[in-house]
Design a protein that fits this description.
The structure is a single chain. By secondary structure, the protein is of the alpha+beta class. The chain has one domain (33-188): Butyryl-CoA Dehydrogenase, subunit A, domain 3. It contains five helices and five strands; from the N terminus they run H-E-E-E-E-H-H-E-H-H. It has a five-stranded antiparallel sheet with strand order 4-3-2-1-5. Keywords: Cell junction, Cell membrane, Membrane, Tight junction, Transmembrane, Transmembrane helix. This is CLD23 protein. Its main location: other.
Length: 189
């Protein structure tokens, strides 16, 4: 065996994908652009409302001013998909942090051999966290056009929703890669 080749490739893939997923999920969770509402009747034509799970911002393309904290007159924040996302997205972030700590303890590149059961358990936690964020993102996407919006306006998915989708997928793939460590445990027995 070559020196310096202690960490299996699957573990490295997991340790690269999961922090990237965490950053994308954090950005997607905190930024207010899950949905964009444009071409609102009786409003300036360049006005765009960006709705997230915590805030709504209005922006005009003709000026750089962005106003957040817009009033929720249509009950957007009371909708079940938005409320579920408010609970599950932060829970997923916390679970991801926990999974990354466990993964770091399990992989520990400076040890002679990684702790395969610990790395595998971290993979399962990270897989779960990815599924925990994918569920509300998928549900919100499914209900995107059914959520309250001014009549006659144009609706589109925002960048925060896309980032959350990508982050969830990276978490799932990274978690699966780390969970492959269980295969090594089975071989040793």
């Amino acid at each position: 065996r070559l020196p310096g080749m202690r960490t299996p490739a699957a573990m490295i893939v997991g340790l690269v994908l999961c922090p990237c997923g965490l950053l994308l999920l954090l950005t997607g969770t905190l930024t207010p652009s899950w949905r964009q509402v444009s071409r609102i009747p009786d409003q300036p034509t360049d006005l765009v409302l960006e709705q997230g799970i915590w805030d709504t911002c209005s922006e005009r393309q003709s000026s750089p001013a962005r106003l957040c904290g817009q009033a929720d007159e249509l009950g957007y924040f009371e909708q079940t998909p938005v409320r579920v996302a408010r609970g599950l997205m932060p829970a997923s972030l916390v679970l991801t942090l926990l999974g990354l700590v466990v993964a770091a303890l399990g992989v520990r590149c400076w040890r002679q051999e990684p702790r395969h059961p610990l790395a595998g358990a971290a993979g399962l936690v990270l897989l779960l966290s990815g599924l925990l964020s994918l569920a509300p993102v998928s549900w919100y996407t499914h209900k995107l056009w059914a959520l309250p919006a001014p009549a006659g306006s144009t609706l589109a998915a925002g960048y925060s929703l896309v980032l959350s989708y990508l982050g969830s997928c990276l978490e799932i793939l990274g978690g699966l890669a780390l969970a492959l460590s269980f295969h090594r445990c089975c071989q040793e027995r």
